[in-house]
Specification:
4-stranded antiparallel beta sheet, about 110 residues, Alpha-Beta Plaits
């Protein structure tokens, strides 16, 4: 399996637009390109970080902007795009709390 870490600095006040665009793009990539999904985080240093998993690097590379409007929403909100990190998964000990897929712990869905 394959994973990518993406990082951005956002324009002040555009966090919700970015999040909405990221959600649209991630859903489209999952549906149309076969990704295993992604998680979006806000880091302590103010950057935004997404971790995405794919069956392999080729699947990720074949996938191109399946939601142009969502991409445009993200691009407008991004002040700086930091280099992505591509990784091959060597071992996987990540487990999810019980509940609905995509539900963050502590939201009542776990």
């Amino acid at each position: 399996m394959f994973a990518v870490i993406y990082r951005w600095r956002l324009r002040p006040g555009m966090e919700q637009q970015f999040t909405d665009g990221w959600h649209r793009v991630t859903a489209a990539i999952h549906t149309r390109c076969g990704s295993y999904g992604s998680r979006l985080h806000r880091a302590d240093d103010g950057t935004w970080v997404a971790y995405a998993r794919w069956p392999d690097e080729e699947a990720r590379d074949r996938c191109s902007a399946p939601d142009p409007q969502g991409v445009a929403m993200m691009v407008e909100a991004i002040a700086e795009r930091l280099p992505e990190t591509r990784m091959r998964i060597v071992d996987d000990m990540l487990t999810e709390p019980g509940g609905a897929p995509g539900a963050a712990p502590g939201t009542g869905a776990d």
